[in-house]
Design brief:
The complex is a heterodimer. Chain A is globular and about 50 Å long. Chain A is built from four helices and three strands. Chain A has helices at about 15-35, 40-60, 85-100, 105-125, and strands at about 1-5, 65-70, 75-80. The chains are: A mainly alpha, B alpha/beta.
Chain lengths: ~140, ~100
């Protein structure tokens, strides 16, 4: 049996905030995969759009709040979702949706999306590794 | 060749999962919480593994104490909460990419 997740001494509930941060990180990774033209397929496209909508909607609940995320094995990393981060998360959700729908993006828009992702990653302390996820190149 | 473009279905309880598998036997991987209303995750694990031992079942729980029972009943993986995105990608890699 494969054992994953927290160690037994750190087990506990997942909070709605843990789930929000996990979904935001997934949105970042899948948007990066889209920018790198990984094939997506029908279900992954639907999942990306659905997750983008969820993150945009749920980000409102965390706007202006300090919250400690426990989602990465209890590494308490306090994140404050200020006005700028909130707006950038919403922009990411919007652009991820556009990418999933195969709307054309030029060089400048691609750069703007990458810059936005870098900003969010820095704020939430996420490295967003895409290279170890090369297996996503298959639809 | 593997395929990561998989349809994801959600069910409200274990009975619905069992009923679905009986009608349409095309679920490859089942991820369930141990604590669920009605049929709990361990009961669901037993019910499915008895009839369909080839199906992959992943249990998640906020209580690491359930690991032993999960292992004894044939769970393929145990996910202790809270977990992160990398654990979910590990599941994809283990059961979809390498397990195909």
């Amino acid at each position: 049996m494969v054992l994953l997740g927290s160690s037994s001494g750190q087990s506990g509930k997942m909070t709605p905030y843990d789930i929000f941060i996990a979904r935001l990180k997934l949105l970042i990774i899948m948007t990066r995969a889209e920018l790198k033209s990984f094939p997506q397929g029908k279900y992954r496209k639907e999942a990306l759009i659905c997750n983008a909508e969820y993150v945009a909607r749920d980000s409102m609940n965390w706007f202006g709040k300090f919250s400690a995320s426990h989602s990465e094995h209890c590494h308490n990393h306090e994140i404050y979702i200020d006005y700028f981060l909130y707006q950038r998360i919403n922009l990411l959700a919007l652009m991820a949706n556009a990418l999933a729908e195969a709307f054309p993006v030029g060089t400048f828009r691609t750069k703007a999306i990458e810059d936005n992702i870098d900003y969010i990653c820095k704020k939430i302390g996420f490295e967003s590794p895409i290279n170890p996820l090369q297996f996503l190149k298959v639809a | 060749m593997y395929c990561v473009n998989r349809e994801i279905l959600s069910f409200n309880d274990g009975y619905s999962v069992c009923a679905y598998i009986e009608c349409q036997n095309h679920l490859d991987i089942i991820i369930t919480d141990t604590d669920m209303p009605g049929m709990d995750g361990l009961e669901l694990l037993t019910a499915i593994k008895t009839k369909y031992p080839q199906k992959k079942i992943i249990l998640m729980s906020e209580s690491a104490d359930r690991q032993e029972a999960a292992s004894r009943l044939g769970a393929d993986a145990f996910l202790t909460k809270p977990f992160g995105l990398k654990d979910l990608f590990s599941i994809v890699e283990t059961f979809v990419v390498n397990g195909s």
